[in-house]
Specification:
Blueprint lengths: L5 H54 L6 H11 L3 E6 L5 E4 L18 E7 L2 E13 L4 E11 L1 H36 L1 H11 L18 H47 L4 H37 L3 E3 L1 H16 L4 E8 L5 E3 L1 H19 L4 E9 L3 E8 L30 H11 L3 E5 L6 E7 L4
Parallel strand pairs: 7-9
Antiparallel strand pairs: 1-2, 1-5, 3-4, 4-5, 6-8, 9-10, 10-12, 11-12
Helix pairs in contact: 1-3, 5-6, 6-9, 7-8, 8-9
This protein binds adenosine-5'-triphosphate and magnesium ion.
Catalytic activity: ATP + protein L-histidine = ADP + protein N-phospho-L-histidine
Main location: membrane
Protein name: histidine kinase
Length: about 450
């Protein structure tokens, strides 16, 4: 059933119960007809028995009118046999060896007793009628036995059965045809939808807008939302490719020029200097590649929404501890504090790691160049957690505090080999969590505040 087509599945689900119901109904109808025919035959048998008994009574035991029996037999189809036993068990008239009533049968006077039996090897239905005669010539109990072969009745039953089967077959066959084509017609909107989707080109990710039956709407809504996410992912990917191509072209061209210059160096010292600068440019290009990939990864993950309830205090404190251990040698003091009651945060731990890596890297590069102090603080409120990273370096001028989050923006172009993507990554991560990233005024140096809602919507 699992692997059946929708059409076959619906067809089976409808036709099987229909066959069952039609079968039961036909069987019940057949039984009812059988009962009715039995009653009719019994009534006729009784009528014959009564007529005979009256006839005997009137003729006071004389022979039965042959003509009457003849008429009855013709009317009934099956031959009728009879036997009359007079008072004292004496044989009056009729056929010998009537079928015996089943042992222990209680035959009451005036009340016909019906039973099935065999007579001369043929199936018969019998009735026994006992009546008290009070005639001058005939006095006492008289027994009238009438029996009749049941071949006509069996034929009637067979006819009824065949009729039932024919009726059942017709109903089921026509229902099957109606259902099979009806279901196909009913499923047409689904096929139309499938056609419409299959005719699309791979870059056509517009939402499906055609009319669809109410049952299919959730499916189409889900598909549309998938299309939307795919379109966004495509957009991000193509932006990444064009960014990457654009940004990598210049440094690579400069490496090529420097390498050409190095080849034609007049002496070894110049050669060393030029090779050294090639190495620096290559490092910067490597950093740029890494940051571009990181930006792309963050965007890709934010589309997949890999959020989980995480212990953000444990996550960040572990990161800070390893940072502090390494930077201890560089005369850098690191402080870590938590304010408010810590709560689990619905976040993507990989993104949080990436965000912290960029903030710590910046603090190290620009704020803590000659030693100093880094303070990291987590402060929890009812709805959000604020992650503050503050160094005591030169800080960022007020007019640049927003722009530092722009892609490829660097405040001091001559300094270091950054590529201006670190804070853009931080901002993207905060946004993916439904939060915000800001650079705020600080009396010490640069202060970054990332606010993340505990449960992003
Ligand atoms: N803690 C800080 N103190 C002073 N200036 C900072 C600090 N953090 C960032 N900046 C300034 O903001 C600019 C943007 O930072 P961002 O991290 O986005 O880029 P980057 O560090 O230059 O490059 P990368 O992508 O390699 O990190 C930096 O170039 C720097 O001038
Ligand atoms: Mg940076």
């Amino acid at each position: 059933m699992k692997r059946l087509s929708l059409r076959s599945r619906l067809f089976l689900l409808l036709i099987v119960p229909l066959i069952l119901i039609a079968g039961i109904a036909s069987y019940a109808r057949f039984q009812e007809a059988e009962r009715l025919s039995e009653t009719l035959y019994d009534n006729t048998l009784l009528a014959v028995a009564l007529t005979i008994s009256r006839d005997v009574a009137i003729s006071e035991g004389d022979i039965l009118t042959e003509q009457l029996l003849e008429e009855l037999t013709t009317a009934l189809g099956d031959p009728v046999y009879y036997r009359i036993t007079g008072p004292g068990g004496g044989f009056v008239t009729g056929y010998s060896d009537p079928p015996d009533a089943p042992a222990g049968s209680d035959i009451q006077s005036g009340k016909p007793f019906f039973f099935d039996s065999t007579y001369l090897g043929r199936e018969v239905r019998s009735v026994i009628l006992r009546e008290f005669l009070n005639q001058p010539r005939l006095q006492g109990w008289m027994t009238v036995e009438v029996w009749q072969t049941v071949s006509q009745r069996a034929a009637l039953s067979r006819d009824l059965l065949y009729q039932s089967i024919a009726l059942l077959g017709t109903i089921i066959l026509s229902a099957a045809v109606i259902l099979w084509f009806g279901i196909k017609l009913g499923l047409k909107p689904l096929l139309d939808l499938q056609n419409a989707i299959s005719l699309r080109t791979p870059d056509d990710l517009r939402p499906i807008r055609r009319w669809i039956p109410i049952e299919l709407r959730p499916l189409v809504q889900t598909t549309n939302s998938l299309f939307e996410r795919l379109a966004k992912a495509f957009e991000i990917r193509s932006a990444f490719i064009s960014d990457a191509a654009h940004q990598l072209r210049n440094p690579i061209a400069s490496i090529v020029t420097q390498a050409e210059a190095a080849v034609s160096s007049p002496d070894e010292i110049t050669l060393r200097k030029r090779v050294d600068s090639i190495a620096r440019s290559a490092r910067a290009t490597g950093r740029l590649t890494n940051q571009l990939l990181s930006l792309e990864r963050v965007r890709g993950r934010s589309l997949r929404a890999l959020f989980e309830q995480a212990d953000i205090v444990a996550l960040i404190s572990a990161r800070i501890r390893s940072f502090a251990e390494v930077q201890l040698l560089n005369d850098i003091a690191v402080g870590f504090a938590v304010e408010g009651a810590p709560k689990p945060v619905l976040c993507d731990p990989v993104m949080i790691e990436e965000m912290m890596a960029n903030l710590l890297d910046n603090a190290l590069r620009y704020g803590l160049r000659e030693g100093g102090e880094l303070a990291v603080m987590l402060s929890f409120s009812e709805e959000e957690v604020a992650i503050v990273v503050e160094d005591d370096g030169p800080g960022i001028k007020e007019e640049l505090r927003e722009r530092v989050f722009d892609r490829f923006f660097r405040a001091d172009l001559d300094f270091g080999d950054g590529c201006g993507l670190g804070l853009a990554i931080v901002a993207d991560i905060a946004e993916a969590h439904g939060g915000s990233a800001r650079c705020v005024l600080s009396p010490k140096g640069a202060r970054f505040e990332i606010r993340l809602p505990l449960e992003p919507h």
